[in-house]
Specification:
The chain has about 375 residues and is of the alpha+beta class. It is built from 4 helices and 19 strands. The termini are far apart.
Amino acid sequence: MKFKTIGVLFIISLLLISCGKKEEQSPQLPVPEIPVFVTQEQDVPIYREFVGQIYGFKDIPIRARVEGFLEEIHFREGSRIEKGMLLYTLESQPFEADVAARMSQVAEAKIMSVKAKSDLERIKPLAEQKAVSESELDSAVAQYEASIASIEAAEANLRAAKIRLGYTKIYSPISGIIGKTQAKVGDFVGRSPNPVILNTVSRLDTVLVEFFITETQYLLLARHYQSQNDSAGQGGKKDTLELILADGSLYQHKGSVNFVDREVDSTTGAMLLQASFPNPDQLLRPGQFARVKARANVIKNGILIPQRCVTELQGFHNVFVVDDNNSVKKRAVKAGPKIKQFWLITEGLKPGEKVVYEGLQKVKDGIRVNPIIEQIELPDEKDN
């Protein structure tokens, strides 16, 4: 019996020793190093972009106001012209002939007036002496007054004829850039009711950009700009618009809204806005398309995290957060708009938390990691 007890104790000792050796032989897994991003608060401006079309500050169509054949073009297409510069000349012979005929009518009316005046001066003393009847005197007075009216009518017709003759020379109404002519020498122009637009002159030191916004966007922008105007009255800075050109570059000059349509289009639910932008280098030309960038809101104490920190599945967003014990916890968050390579988190994160930045496929809920803080510069207002 004694020997059986000793044997059992010996076997138990061997088992304990073997287990201890196995535990010594199984090495512990190293804690992985995981890059993390530390959240922080900042005011985040929210911008909206709208597609707009560019127009000149003034786009004046050039039309012929009388009918005739185009005789001469006095400018170089696409060049800068000054106000009052001669642009086109139409044939003037028919209008010169009309002026000559009207001048002849004026001279005839004046001659008739001289005769009527002479008759009146001759009849008037005879009427005083009762040598002629009162009716003859009244007739002479009427003829003289009619001759005066005829002179005035003939002179008015002459002025109208001279105006039509002046329309055979077409001058620029403004200073600006002129486009390609739509008529050539020898073309018949100015026919009513739809006279040909010969050309267009645009003033381009300032340009106008027209764009449409929805009713909801209008309410959002109107409230924001109202608050900005209130703060501007207290020394704050009023917002301005930015312009993104077709090649993606940001236009160097800022603009402002100078026109808001009086109503929302009931068929489209859109409202027309117009903004003006300085164009000293005349880089912008009418007909170009660009995106108008407007600040719509400012999120106070917002949290931005890199987009690579967020996993998205069926509209739900999640991040991995490393707690004070270096343990990874999966957390659901609510994401707002994207700003550059960052995502605005509206719910689910607080400032100072460590969010897994890289290696999301290597981590899972509950594991321990060695967090390595990544220094990532957050976008400021100029970067948005």
